[in-house]
């Protein structure tokens, strides 16, 4: 049985917060809200509890988890060293939607980091997440609280849909305010490298650190034979059931392409401004110049398209700057790396 624990705010829901924290401390599984997406939380130091996260999600064992902390004392427990660059990032972006990969300490079992010598650490900003971690008084391993392969969950309703009966509790803390998963950067190599783009942008990271490399898997289909630095990026991710086709081009080129290609049961996933020009059903992820709004609505829109029974979805291709890089990274995976260039009608992988 999965218990639903409603938490409006941390001041009037002490009982629910204690209950969630006690389940985690006792080795159980709880879906908790964070500012990015919901996380499926367990004690990061408890091998058995972490193993059950992989089982509940149907997640491949070689895909490591993020360890969530609620203060910097916990950071020094889960990592072997805190390099200067980590402190620079922590000062600027924590608590917040940034995950930093660092050398792992022996307190974190191999199952949590999928056998890697590094560990991913994040200090979330969401007060409910922070309060549950504090009360559980352990570092908390949490992947996104979706079934492996489906879009991440940004509301308690999404978690109920995916995880009811599979976890001990779901904390309903409302909708997530960022909507896409955290930015992941590794400081384990010689030069900092972006592994997954998010709400903290590449441009912002470069302002703090100077040179930041970008892992090829951020924008390209990983070579199945190459060694990947971010295991999560090799999986087809964020995939709704419908077939997603990413269409690159101006508004006119996009609308022309969609209008001349769509048939029954096919939808557009677009910006507000595109809607009047489209002759097929559409779902908008927000205003064209508001990438934060688009991030908030992306996963819910992909889930709604499945509910509508969409067979094919023509998604407008985001710009690859700012938060747009995160949207592009998620959508190109949903589209299995197929991009159609509307101007020429050619397809590129
Ligand atoms: O916003 C988020 O990051 C959410 C919330 C719950 O915090 N969590 C999340 O976790 O998105 P997950 O498991 O869905 O994604 C974690 C990503 C994966 O791509 C994984 O491969 C990568 O981080 N990762 C974790 N540990 C790593 C490590 N030691 N080295 C390289 N990549 C790592
Ligand atoms: Mg995930």
UniProtKB/TrEMBL annotation:
Q: Name one GO cellular component term.
A: cytoplasm
Q: According to its UniProt record, which reaction does this protein catalyse?
A: L-threonine + hydrogencarbonate + ATP = L-threonylcarbamoyladenylate + diphosphate + H2O
According to the entry, every stretch annotated as the YrdC-like domain falls at 14-200
Residues crossing the lipid bilayer are none
Residues annotated for ATP binding in this entry:
59, 63, 118, 142, 144, 152, 196, 238
Q: Does the keyword tRNA processing apply?
A: yes
Binding of L-threonine occurs at: 36, 68, 122, 182
Give the first-level EC class, as a single word: transferase
Q: Which GO terms describe its biological process?
A: regulation of translational fidelity; tRNA processing
List the EC numbers from the record: 2.7.7.87
Q: Which SUPFAM superfamilies match?
A: YrdC/RibB (SSF55821)
Q: Where in the cell is it found?
A: Cytoplasm
InterPro entries recorded: DHBP_synth_RibB-like_a/b_dom, Sua5-like_dom, Sua5/YwlC_C, Sua5_C, T(6)A37_SUA5, TC-AMP_synthase_SUA5
Domain of life from the UniProt record: Bacteria
Q: Which keywords does UniProt give here?
A: ATP-binding, Cytoplasm, Nucleotide-binding, Nucleotidyltransferase, Transferase, tRNA processing
- Does the keyword Ligase belong to this entry? no
Q: Which family does it belong to?
A: Belongs to the SUA5 family.
The protein's role, per its UniProt record: Required for the formation of a threonylcarbamoyl group on adenosine at position 37 (t(6)A37) in tRNAs that read codons beginning with adenine.
Question: Protein name, please?
Answer: Threonylcarbamoyl-AMP synthase
């Amino acid at each position: 049985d999965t218990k639903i624990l409603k938490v409006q705010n941390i001041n009037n829901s002490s009982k629910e917060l204690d209950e969630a924290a006690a389940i985690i401390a006792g080795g159980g599984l709880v879906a908790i809200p964070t500012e990015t997406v919901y996380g499926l939380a367990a004690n990061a130091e408890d091998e058995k509890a972490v193993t059950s996260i992989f089982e509940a999600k149907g997640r491949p064992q070689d895909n490591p988890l993020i360890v969530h902390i609620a203060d910097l004392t916990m950071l020094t427990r889960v990592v072997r060293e805190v390099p200067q660059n980590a402190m620079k990032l922590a000062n600027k972006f924590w608590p917040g939607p940034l995950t930093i990969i660092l050398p792992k300490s022996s307190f974190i079992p191999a199952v949590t980091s999928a056998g890697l010598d590094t560990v991913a650490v994040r200090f979330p900003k969401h007060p409910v997440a922070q309060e549950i971690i504090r009360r559980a008084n352990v570092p908390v391993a949490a992947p996104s609280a979706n079934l492996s392969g489906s879009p991440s969950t940004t509301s308690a309703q999404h978690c109920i849909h995916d995880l009811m009966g599979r976890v001990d509790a779901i904390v309903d803390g409302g909708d997530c305010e960022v909507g896409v998963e955290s930015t992941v950067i590794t400081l384990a190599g010689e030069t900092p490298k972006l592994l997954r783009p998010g709400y903290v942008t590449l441009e912002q990271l470069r302002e703090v650190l100077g040179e930041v490399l970008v892992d090829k898997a951020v924008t390209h289909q990983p070579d199945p034979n190459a060694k990947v630095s971010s295991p999560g990026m090799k999986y087809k991710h964020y995939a709704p059931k419908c077939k997603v086709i990413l269409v690159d081009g101006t508004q006119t080129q996009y609308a022309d392409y969609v209008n001349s290609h769509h048939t029954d049961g096919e939808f557009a996933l677009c910006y507000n401004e595109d809607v009047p020009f489209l002759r097929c059903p559409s779902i908008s992820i927000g205003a064209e110049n508001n990438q934060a709004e688009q991030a908030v609505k992306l996963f819910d829109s992909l889930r709604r398209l499945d509910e509508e029974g969409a067979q094919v979805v023509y998604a407008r291709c985001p710009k690859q700057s700012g938060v747009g890089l995160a949207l592009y990274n998620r959508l190109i995976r949903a589209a299995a790396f197929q991009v159609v260039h509307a101007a020429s009608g050619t397809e590129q992988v």
